[in-house]
């Protein structure tokens, strides 16, 4: 029984290490999003860090319109980045989970 417990602890530590490695890798996965008309483009990492924002000069003339564009486009980009992030981390967590009776909710 003690050996099983040590094996499970080892697997949990290995899974934790894989999750941390995946989080680092997600800093290099870029998510591009643009407004419907292409006047605003944003790039985020899958960890939801903004890397770049490109604004068409036409939007600079209207502060309210620019704010609306930023809100809509950034929210879409964050939503997409979150989906990628959660899918990647869930896959790693599922793969690394030891077989613990009653804990099959991750399978």
UniProtKB/TrEMBL annotation:
Main location (coarse class): cytoplasm
Name of this protein: Nucleoid-associated protein C1H87_00045
Stated family: Belongs to the YbaB/EbfC family.
Subcellular localization: Cytoplasm, Nucleoid
Assembly mode: Homodimer.
Keywords, comma-separated and alphabetical: Coiled coil, Cytoplasm, DNA-binding
Function: Binds to DNA and alters its conformation. May be involved in regulation of gene expression, nucleoid organization and DNA protection.
One of the record's GO molecular function terms: DNA binding
GO cellular component, one term: cytoplasm
Any coiled-coil regions, as ranges: 5-32
Organism annotation: Flavivirga eckloniae
InterPro entries, alphabetized: YbaB-like_sf (IPR036894), YbaB/EbfC (IPR004401)
HAMAP family in the cross-refs: DNA_YbaB_EbfC (MF_00274)
């Amino acid at each position: 029984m003690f050996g099983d417990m040590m094996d499970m602890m080892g697997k949990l530590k290995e899974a934790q290490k894989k999750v941390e490695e995946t989080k680092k890798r997600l800093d290099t996965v870029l998510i591009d999003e643009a407004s419907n008309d292409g006047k605003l483009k944003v790039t985020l990492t899958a960890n939801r860090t903004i890397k770049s924002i490109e604004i068409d000069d036409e939007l600079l003339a209207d502060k309210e319109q620019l704010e609306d564009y930023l809100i809509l486009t950034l929210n879409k980009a964050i939503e997409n980045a979150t989906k990628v992030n959660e899918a990647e981390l869930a896959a790693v967590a599922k793969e690394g989970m030891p077989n613990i009776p009653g804990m099959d909710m991750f399978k």
